[in-house]
Amino acid sequence: MVDQKLQERVAEKIRECLDIAEQRFDRSFQTPEISYKLRGLVAGQANSRLWRIRINSILLQENTDDMLNSTVPHEVAHLIADKVYGHIRSHGAEWKSVMRLLGISPNRCHRYDTTNSRVKVNVKHKFCYKCNCRDMIIVGPVRHRKMQSRFSMNKNSGYRCCSCKGYLVFVKPLGQVTYEQARDGKTKRPTKKYHVLKKGSKMERALHIYKENQFLLSRITIICLFMTTLGMSKAGATTYYYNCQKRAA
Ligand SMILES: [Zn+2]
Ligand SMILES: [Zn+2]
């Protein structure tokens, strides 16, 4: 179990994040319920409907500083983003903007060694599916057969992920491979890469302005801001606006 002192540090961190958000959004946020019963590969989980954060206690004890500085704010950002912006994509632009507000780069996944907290899964006769938000969803043989028979003509299974609402797509049978092999397998979704922006370049300055104002100002106002502060033409500013939108997504 997590000792009292560590629990206090978590609570303090959560309050610290909420205070920043209260200032920024000019409203108050209740302190969420905190549970330490989360197991497995996930470091933390937020449920804004129940206003609750679940923390993986084993990972917390093994990676205390990292968990306090990234996982805890990550989950608090989910609560804040959901509360402020309503029904949104869980790791979308709104959540990312809250992460930046909390002073953290919006990375999605944790990178802890999860050997101790892992729930042991016998992957023999299991099947791997994926959706838009997860690369590996393990399904047993009974469910797999059902998913394949009902929608055998489609490439998707007909089942949807409860968090991203995307269809579960069959990747491969896991057969005799170990959990680690399956997890590290080449099922990662390719993400679009952008060149690193030169410091002080027009695009970098534009992106900075965009990120600070994307949820506060209208599209037209941001374009005008580009024109006045960066000396752009309307056409140029519009192009920059859409490029910023793509990069910030
Ligand atoms: Zn998340
Ligand atoms: Zn999903």
Automatic annotation (TrEMBL):
Any single GO BP term: response to stress
Domain SprT-like: from-to ranges: 12-171
Protein name: SprT-like domain-containing protein
Organism, as annotated: marine sediment metagenome
